[in-house]
Design goal:
alpha/beta, Alpha/beta knot, two-stranded antiparallel ribbon, 8 helices, elongated
Length: 225
């Protein structure tokens, strides 16, 4: 079973993503365990403070060292982590290959930033990998964490009813997935390609591969390069 622990300043943001569909089934099957750890439980003083003004001035609050350090070390005292990942816009851009690699791990700790980010010393002392889900900024790392967990969890053996489904997803072989069709055979004058109806699986596979290459060349030529 894979364990993913998530440190969050706003844990309620993560209640829904893991309570439905594929991830819910993964948890129910005992293939995936997700624990959300409220950072404020480790906050300072009666107000459980977790952020403060940044040195040098400037707009935005920074998540403090002490609460994060106490929280991370409490987690580490109970679990040996393969990766401690911080979700940050300046991390390496997330892709399917990284998801594949992370799906082979057993224990992962995710740190969700908030406000202006976390004190650099936490990154220096504890973080083993920094990941960005794209070239844009969110209010916090929780949505990014949900994306990581979803993309990793669906790859675990036994999670999908047909495990070959994940192997034919976009980006698995640096190609986008081909067009897909279901009933009816004709809809508003548009017909399903004849090759998909003839039962010749060799020709179907060849057609799908050709369509994947064409779609990738048209939409994401950088992947071809």
């Amino acid at each position: 079973m894979m364990q993913i622990h998530i440190i969050s300043a706003v844990p309620s943001l993560l209640e829904s993503p893991f309570a439905h569909s594929i991830l819910k089934r993964a948890i129910q099957k005992g293939l995936l365990s997700i624990e959300i750890i409220p950072l404020r439980d480790f906050g300072i003083g009666k107000h459980q403070q977790i952020d403060d003004y940044q040195y040098g001035g400037g707009a935005g609050m920074v998540m403090m060292c002490e609460p994060l350090s106490k929280c991370i070390e409490d987690c580490m005292s109970k679990t040996t982590y393969d990766e401690i990942i911080y979700l940050t816009p300046d991390g390496e851009t997330y892709n399917q290959q990284t998801a594949n690699t992370l799906s082979l791990k057993k224990n992962i700790l995710l740190i969700c930033g908030h406000y202006k980010g976390i004190d650099q010393r936490i990154r220096d002392l504890y973080v083993t990998k920094e990941i960005s889900i794209g070239d844009y900024v969110l209010s916090g790392g929780e949505l990014g964490a949900a994306i990581l967990v979803d993309s990793i969890g669906r790859l675990l053996p036994g999670v999908l009813s047909d495990e070959t489904s994940a192997l034919t997803d976009s980006f698995q072989d640096n190609l986008l997935a081909p067009p897909v069709y279901t009933r009816p055979e004709e809809f508003k004058g548009l017909k399903v390609p004849e090759v998909l109806l003839n039962g010749n699986f060799k020709l179907i596979d060849e057609w799908r591969h050709e369509q994947s290459i064409k779609r990738t060349e048209d939409r994401r030529p950088d992947l071809i390069d």
